[in-house]
Design brief:
This protein is about 45% helix and about 20% strand. The chain is α+β, with helices and mostly antiparallel strands and about 375 residues long. It has 2 domains: about 160 residues, Beta-Lactamase (2-Layer Sandwich), CATH 3.30.450.40; about 150 residues, Beta-Lactamase. The strands form 2 sheets. Strands 8-7-6-11-10-9 form a 6-stranded antiparallel sheet, sandwiched between helices. Strands 3-2-1-5-4 form a 5-stranded antiparallel sheet. Helix 2 packs antiparallel against helix 3, helix 2 packs parallel to helix 7 and helix 8 packs antiparallel against helix 11. The longest helix is centred in the middle third of the chain and has 46 residues.
Length: about 375
Amino acid sequence: MNQQLTNLNGPELEKRYRQLLQETRVMSARLAVVNEVSRAVSTALELDAVLEVVVEQTKWVLDYDRCHIALRNQDDETYRQWWLYNPADQADSAPSAQARAQAQNFPLSEGLAGWVIRHSQILRPGERTPARRDAGFAESPLPAEAAGSTLALPLTADGETIGALIFESRQRGAYNDADVRLGTILAAQIAVAIRNAQLLEESRRRTAYIEALNAISRAINASLDIDEVFQTFAIQTRRLIEHDRMSIALLDAGRKTLHVHAVSTDGESALDTGVELPIEGSAVGRVVTRRQPIIQPDTRQGQFQEDKRLHEIGIRSYLDVPLTVKGEVIGTLNVGCRRPNAFSPTDVETLTEIANQVAISIQNQRLHAETQQFA
C-alpha cells in the first residue's frame, strides 16, 4: 500500500487519500451499526424480537433484496427455513410468529442452508456448491440461482452451528471481503442471541408439553366418551404441534380396513367420520402394518390412496403415528397441515406420546362397552 501511494503524483495522491478516508468513514459507520445490533439482540429475549432486529438493522450493514434464515432442529437431521424479508411475500413487514409458523422442514443433506450448516462454512460470493439451488424456495419470483449474489453465513454458538443466515441480492458482485467480515461479526452476535431465545422457548415448550399431557390425562379420567375426549386431544395437540386437521383411524374387526372415527379440522373434509380406508395402498395402512410413523412432506407428490383427497381439501403434508394397546396396533392418530414440509422428527416424538394417551382412552371405552354388554 505504501509503495503504491509513493508512486502517485500530487493530484492522484490526494484523490486516493480522499477515497481511503471515505472508505474508513463508511466502515466506521457500518461498525457502529454492528455494535447497535449487538446491543439490541442482547436485550431481546424472544426469538421473533431477535429476528426483527436482524431485519431492521442489517439493511444498514449489508444490502440485500431478500433474506432468509434456517435453524437446525433438535433431531440434528433436519432444519427449518423461512423468510425474514421477501418483498414478494411480506412487502416491508418485519418477521413475525406467523411467518415462523410457515417454516418448512428439510433434511440437512438438502439445500444451500443445509450445506452451510453441515460444513459450518461461509458460502463466499462466487463460490459454487452442489446445493447452490436452495431447497424450498424454487417457486419464488427470485429463485436462488437467479440471484446476482448470495452471502450465506453459519450461525455458531458455543462451538455448535445452529443455523444459517442467507442474504441475496439481484446485483452481481454485491458482496466483497469487507461485507463478509462484517457479516461474520453480525452472525456471531445473532447466533448467541438466537441460542438464548431458543433455550427460553424450549423451557416454555416443555412446560406446555407437561400441561397438555396432564390435561389429556384428566379428560381420560373424566369421560369414557371418545368423541368428547378427542376434542381435548385436538385442543392440547394444537398447543404442541401446528396443524390444520387431526383424525383417528381405527381398524375394523377383520383388520382389512380402517375407519375414520374422529375429525377436527378448520374447514370441510373429504375424509370425514365414517370414511373407510384400505390397509393396502394407504398411508394409515402402512403405519399399521409396519408399526412405524409416516411423514408425508407433500401430498401433491404423494403415492398413498388418501393423498389426492387430502390435497384436494388443501392439506399439503401430514404425520400419522400408530395407536398401540398392549403391543397391538389398533389404528392411527393423524395430523395434517396446509403447508408442505410442516412436520419434523420432533413432532413425531410428541404425537407418539399423545397417541399413547389416545390409545388408553380407546381401551377404556372398549372395556366399558364390554362391561355394559355383559352386565
